[in-house]
Design brief:
CATH topology of one domain: Glutamyl-tRNA Synthetase, domain 3
Structural class: mainly alpha
Bound molecules: glutamic acid
Largest sheet: 3 strands, parallel
Strand content: 5-15%
Number of strands: 12
Strand order of the largest sheet: 1-2-3
CATH architecture of one domain: Alpha-Beta Complex
Radius of gyration: 32 Å
Helix content: 40-55%
Number of helices: 22
Mean pLDDT: 97
Length: about 500
């Protein structure tokens, strides 16, 4: 039975790369009929940021990646928040010492700092540990005495030198680390809290995780993790590892960072986040006006592709097609233009009523009050020309209020005395034309134009400018029908008034 987990640390807003990690875990679980778990790794109290946990859960809800078990979702293996599992880690840390794979260390932070000052490359490892203050040197009795006397201590992993540690990564194949190069990582800190390494391995074991799918930055830690599994005697049930490729900047080299958001003026977080400073506050994909389906499609292809030319996939299709083998090793470029084009496609393909529901709060925020029916119609005319949801009420403001400004250049080119007369006559005709419907209107206007001996190109652009102010608006007669007779005639009159007719 496949069991995977998404295990973010609540150290701030969840980066979009974290959402991709969650997505790949989710897709794999769903495809395999497995379980997707949300575990909050909050043992680093110094980096804990209030609100970050709620943000993670809200982001997962927004994109529709609901965990089967986890913080906020319950389940049989809880608690799923690491700060609620302190005793479990403490017990395991002591157990690992008893098993001979870890030891107590009493070195004070000052003593270690002094060592680091003196030796540039000082590392606590198999070469140095015999000259330091730990239970390997002091012996069991003295160590126990110190612990019972309340002396602060940490527990460190005892890494044995001279071994090649092989990891069979499902994406990267055989990855080898030399144990002689590894340090004796702290597992339990002096405040009784575990470090990431200990808590992560204990939980993955107790939560019966079968596959670890996480960012490439965790690959080096995996060597220590393998030693921990072995030390606990859990190697037979060690999960399979898959380390996902880095997400790279839109242009240039290097990993996508949160600063790139501001630099390129693009969102790199799923939801907006208000940090303590302006620099630590970001606009999210949601607030920028992305549909979650588009974000999912975009993220799925950041490092994975099923082969073939198709690139539009629903979540259901992704579940069918996903395979870890098709994840690339190389970094995946964060192509924001691609994200936009997905959003356009998804908006275009979306049902008008559903889209209108999403646009309604944006319209209301601007004080626009319209019926559901009207909104659906306006949305249906605009949806092939918007990229983001707010475009419906920004670019398409003219469905909700009179034209604010006219494309003067286009107007000057076309408006003249003769045309003005024809335009005035047309306005009168339209004011009484029945039925006020796009197809019939179009037919009647065409006949009228022919009778007057003018070309469609002389009149139709002016009608469009009158209704929406620009040459780029939606289909002109459909727009007139949606606006209705009264508003349409008012706009034609307004244009004539402006042009002094
Ligand atoms: N807490 C780690 C993080 O913030 C989890 C890494 C892992 O999945 O093991 O990404």
């Amino acid at each position: 039975m496949v069991r995977v987990r998404f295990a973010p640390s609540p150290t701030g807003a969840l980066h979009i790369g974290g959402v991709r990690t969650a997505l790949y875990n989710y897709l794999f679980a769903r495809q395999q009929g497995g379980t997707f778990i949300l575990r909050i790794e909050d043992t680093d109290q110094g980096r804990y940021v209030p609100g970050a946990e709620d943000y993670i859960i809200e982001a997962l809800r927004w994109v529709g990646l609901l965990p089967d078990e986890g913080v906020g979702f319950g389940g049989p293996d809880g608690p799923y928040r690491q700060s609620d599992r302190k005793e479990i880690y403490q017990k395991h840390a002591h157990e690992l010492v008893e098993r001979g794979h870890a030891y107590y260390a009493f070195d004070t932070p000052e003593a270690l700092d002094a060592r680091r000052q003196a030796e540039e490359h000082f590392t606590y490892n198999h070469l140095t540990r015999n000259g330091l203050s730990n239970s390997l040197v002091l012996g069991e009795t003295e160590s126990k005495r110190r612990i019972e006397a309340g002396e602060p201590f940490v527990v460190r992993l005892k890494v044995q030198p001279g071994r090649s540690i092989h990891i069979q990564d499902l994406i990267r194949g055989d990855v080898v680390f030399e144990s002689s190069e590894l340090d004796d990582k702290v597992l339990l800190k002096a405040d009784g809290m575990p470090t990431y390494h200990l808590a992560n391995i204990v939980d993955d074991h107790l939560m019966r995780i079968t596959h670890v799918i996480r960012g490439e930055e965790w690959l080096p830690s995996t060597a220590h993790h393998v030693l921990l599994y072995e030390g606990f005697g859990w190697d037979a049930t060690m999960p399979r590892f898959s380390h996902l490729p880095l997400i790279m900047k839109p242009v240039g080299n290097g990993k996508l960072s949160k600063r790139d958001g501001a630099k390129f003026g693009i969102p790199v977080f799923p939801l907006s986040w208000k940090g303590e400073t302006a620099e630590d506050s970001f606009e999210g994909f949601r607030e920028a006006g992305f549909l979650p389906e588009a974000v999912i499609n975009f993220l799925a292809l950041l490092g994975w592709h099923p082969g073939g030319d198709e690139d539009v996939f629903s979540l259901e299709q992704l579940i069918q097609l996903f395979s870890i083998e098709h994840i690339g090793k190389g970094g995946a470029r964060f192509d924001y233009e691609k994200a936009k084009s997905f959003n356009q496609k998804y908006i275009h393909a979306m049902d008008n009523e559903a889209l209108a529901k999403l646009v309604r709060p944006l319209a209301e925020a601007k004080g626009y009050q319209v019926s559901d029916e009207y909104l659906s119609k306006a949305v249906s005319l605009m949806k092939e020309r918007v990229t983001f949801l707010p475009d419906f009420v920004q670019t398409g403001y003219y469905f909700f209020e009179p034209v604010r400004e006219y494309d003067e250049e286009a107007l000057q080119k076309r408006w003249n005395g003769d045309i003005a007369l024809v335009f005035a006559e047309l306005t009168k005709k339209m004011a009484i034309f029945e039925p006020f419907k796009a197809v019939e209107l179009e037919e009647a206007v065409k006949v009228f134009i022919q009778e007057k001996g003018v070309k469609p190109g002389e009149i139709l652009p002016l009608l469009r400018i009158a209704l929406v102010g620009t040459m780029k608006g939606p289909a002109v007669f459909e727009t007139a029908e949606v606006l209705g007779r009264e508003e349409t005639i008012a706009r034609l009159n307004a244009l004539m008034l402006k042009c002094n007719v």
